[in-house]
Amino acid sequence: MACILLIDDNSEFRHEVCLGLVDAGHRVTEASSGREGLKVFKSEYPDVIITDVVMDQGEGVETMRGIHQLAPQAPVIAISAHEPYLTTMKKLGAARTLIKPFRMSALIEIIDKVLTALPPRPQ
């Protein structure tokens, strides 16, 4: 089980993804904007961050940069319906990217790979 921060401004999409992640055994915290996501990150320090790229209040690039300033090794999975944005996110340090729409199984597989690559957390 991992602690996952899901940042997306589409509440219906966020709800569906959250349900799928919880069904897969993860604990999920949601944020509706990049700004809110940074606040949650600071208080929860999740294992994995999933962020949309295009959002009104704190888009994905700003959000990922803010997270990486606080924790350079924090794994960010960028999601977007626009593939060029995902290419940019990967170049800027996203651990993985996934184009919308996607199957829940694809996201869970990516999360598993990211978690496997993480160093163990200090006790």
What is this structure's SSE topology?
Elements: E1 3-7, H1 11-23, E2 27-31, H2 34-44, E3 48-52, H3 60-70, E4 76-80, H4 83-91, E5 96-99, H5 104-117
Parallel strand pairs: 1-2, 1-3, 3-4, 4-5
**How far do the termini sit from each other?**
16 Å
Q: In sequence order, what are the helices and strands, one letter per element?
A: EHEHEHEHEH
Largest sheet: 5 strands, parallel
Low-confidence stretches: none
In spatial order, strands of the major sheet run 2-1-3-4-5
**Helix content class:** 40-55%
CATH class type: Alpha Beta
Radius of gyration: 13 Å
Q: What is the number of independent domains?
A: 1
CATH homologous superfamily descriptor: Response regulator
Indicate the CATH architecture.
3-Layer(aba) Sandwich
The proportion of residues in beta strands is: 15-25%
Quick one: how many beta strands? 5
Summed over residues and divided by their number, the pLDDT gives a mean of 94
- The backbone outline, from C-alpha atoms, is globular
Query: What is the CATH topology?
Result: Rossmann fold
How many helices? The count is 5
Q: Structural class, judged by helices and strands?
A: alpha/beta
Task: Explain how this protein is built.
With 123 residues, the protein is α/β, with parallel strands linked by helices. The protein has one domain (3-115): Response regulator (Rossmann fold), CATH 3.40.50. It has helices at residues 11-23, 34-44, 60-70, 83-91, 104-117; strands at residues 3-7, 27-31, 48-52, 76-80, 96-99. The protein has a 5-stranded parallel sheet, with helices on both faces. Helix 2 runs parallel beside helix 3. It starts with a strand and ends in a 6-residue tail after the last helix.
